[in-house]
Amino acid sequence: MSASRDADPNGDTGKGADRPRLERLLGTEDIRWLVDRARSRIERGQELTGVVTLSSATPEQRDAIQRLLGRRPRPGSSLTVSLDAVDAVLRRSGASPDGLAAAVEELTGGPVRPRAEVEADLTRAWDEAYEPLSTACARRPELAEWCARLRASGLVPRLLGTPAEAAPTLRTLATVVSALPADGVGLATFAARVCGDAHGLDDGRPLGTLALGAARALTGVPAGSGAEWRREAWTAAGLLTDDLSSTALAFGLPGDTATPTGRALAALREAGQPAVLTLRQLVQTPARPLPNGTVVRVCENPAVVSAAADYLGAGCLPLVCTQGQPGTAVLTLLRQLGAAGAELRYHGDFDWGGVRIANTLLRRVPWRPWRYSAADYRAAVRAAPGTPLMGTPLTAAWDATLTEAMNEVGTRVEEEAVLNDLLGDLSTP
């Protein structure tokens, strides 16, 4: 329908839009692009003046503009439309007496707010939602940095939705953060007390995901994945998810007679017996400061601990065993010993599995090699030929030349093959 047939000859400019007439002029699919362009301009805070161009317009789109403006568009593949002309037609026709901007609002479901205004309101809403958490984190730089990174990451909207939807969880998260680190309590017990829900910090819950990030930021546990890694991160913040089954094997550790765990360690050391420490004991009774220069040796295999108990007894220097890949209790003990002033020295099997374990441990706990270099490997091969080295080579993070030597020689040497050397290092002078 042409503009001339829709125009009001009396120039009626009533306040309301004539919806049926407006639908005929701007409501078809072939002219929807023009309405969308106009709305986008309003959202950007621009005036609805000048022209808009549609490249590669279809014949139907060109016909729709001809019906609207009452004249054929210029030839060519593109289609250029004057917004001023459209505004004038809408006013004269009575379809939208208030012009194109009012027509766009009528057709697209309500007032169009400038995008900058919408974004400013959204920012204010997020500021209000984050305010309790920001306040709780402000007192500790590591948490303040984490909070800023969390907001910049967009994780909270992905997990929780709008500011209004996220605000209650962020308030609870602020309470959790304020209560960290804990003092060796169970995670569920802590969640019941702080969150009002024993399962509030469970794996997979949005609050649990966010709180675990705060625990990592507070304790410096590196990024990772899997159940063992989550247990390690919670434990570092004083929260236990499995406080009895995760254990650490140690021998000859000094005991602090002021605590039950310390007295047990002292008695076992005097008796020349190894100790098996639960995660619960380690978190609730951390290691006390050690004398300067204290060295704690760390091995991979329990056979080393057993031989030390058999041959050295109470005369064995401090020793901790990872028992393969170190679990949460082992990592907790080693971190506590390092914080107490001990220098950790590590030895493992000379094979690719041993290198993998050592690399994993080094990413989590600083240590120096204990007879675990390229030179030590070559000496071990000369003393005990070992077996063929199998598997995929790995670079030893503490000594790249060890990888080169192992590739060159091609022999696997287990810790048990060098026990005499290790026991000699563990003997008291």
From TrEMBL:
<dbReference type="InterPro" id="IPR024465">
    <property type="entry name" value="DUF2399"/>
</dbReference>
<dbReference type="Pfam" id="PF11796">
    <property type="entry name" value="DUF3323"/>
</dbReference>
<dbReference type="InterPro" id="IPR013495">
    <property type="entry name" value="CHP02679"/>
</dbReference>
<protein>
    <submittedName>
        <fullName>Uncharacterized protein (TIGR02679 family)</fullName>
    </submittedName>
</protein>
<feature type="region of interest" description="Disordered">
    <location>
        <begin position="1"/>
        <end position="22"/>
    </location>
</feature>
<feature type="domain" description="DUF2399">
    <location>
        <begin position="276"/>
        <end position="426"/>
    </location>
</feature>
<dbReference type="Pfam" id="PF09664">
    <property type="entry name" value="DUF2399"/>
</dbReference>
<dbReference type="InterPro" id="IPR024466">
    <property type="entry name" value="CHP02679_N"/>
</dbReference>
<feature type="domain" description="Conserved hypothetical protein CHP02679 N terminus">
    <location>
        <begin position="48"/>
        <end position="254"/>
    </location>
</feature>
